[in-house]
Specification:
Blueprint (H helix, E strand, L loop, with lengths): L17 H9 L4 E5 L3 E2 L39 H4 L2 H9 L2 E4 L6 E6 L2 H10 L4 E4 L4 E6 L5 E5 L2 E4 L5 E2 L9 E2 L2 H4 L32 H16 L5 H16 L7 H13 L4 H15 L2
Parallel strand pairs: 6-10
Antiparallel strand pairs: 1-2, 1-3, 3-9, 4-6, 4-8, 5-6, 7-8
Length: 292
Amino acid sequence: MTQLTPVRRASGHRPPLLDTALTLAADGVPVLPLRAGKLPFANCATCAGNVCGGRPNMKTPGPCHCPRVCHAWAAATTDPAVITSPPWLAAWDRAVCVGYHPGGAGLTVVDLDDADAIAWARTALPATLTLETTRGQHWIYRGAMTSRNAVRPRVDVKSRMAYARWLGNGTGAMAPLPDAVRALAVKEPPAPRRAPQGLPAPLRAHGGDCPHRTLTYLERGISMAVQRITEASSAVHATVYRTFLAVLSTHGRCGCLSENHVARLFTAAQAKGESPRHCTDAWANALTALGL
């Protein structure tokens, strides 16, 4: 840990959160002050609505040339000169906690907001550094990824282009970011405006003979797809969609898929907690993606 030299105002006043912020910054963790409600400070009048032109798309961390604490997570910094500048000291005076940019530190936070979310994580995700929150836990992994909120009920993923509250020391050793967490950020294509409500009808042949020499090939494909869905231990939404996509890409153009085949896939998905509407939407999305 880098030895920190105390930075004080002329009056001798030192914001109580400043030492924590400087310690984290010295360890390479970009920090920012958070106000009441664990929220970042609002942009100043010059930067309101990103009219300043600085980081308008928030694609890279760091504020514009404004010296204030603007642009939320993008303001997070490891520069002690910025952290202890007069505008930032004024913000630290009003701050209620220290925030940080996980992605900027090469970290990912899985925010588990209640007991059910924690119970799910214990069966679906590898153990890692764990910190207690007011209502749940933060599981922190080594590695950065795309952030996404509400990946499951009461579960958020915070990494790039996001901020989290610093909670102090936790328990356990930090594990590498697993694929099970990365899969949580995978988004399906948007559902069509008029997604079918019932079981999709079997696809009609698009001309020509069926390329499958025997129906055994199709049966094996459906059985493997059902098994893949049944064995999914995490990212069920993404697994169902990708499985539907794989089935349709192989069997969707020859006209061999029957209502029975589709029903078996839907039944497997619903046994994993998917709703009938989600199954229908995922099937329609896969059809759209393949141009069927």
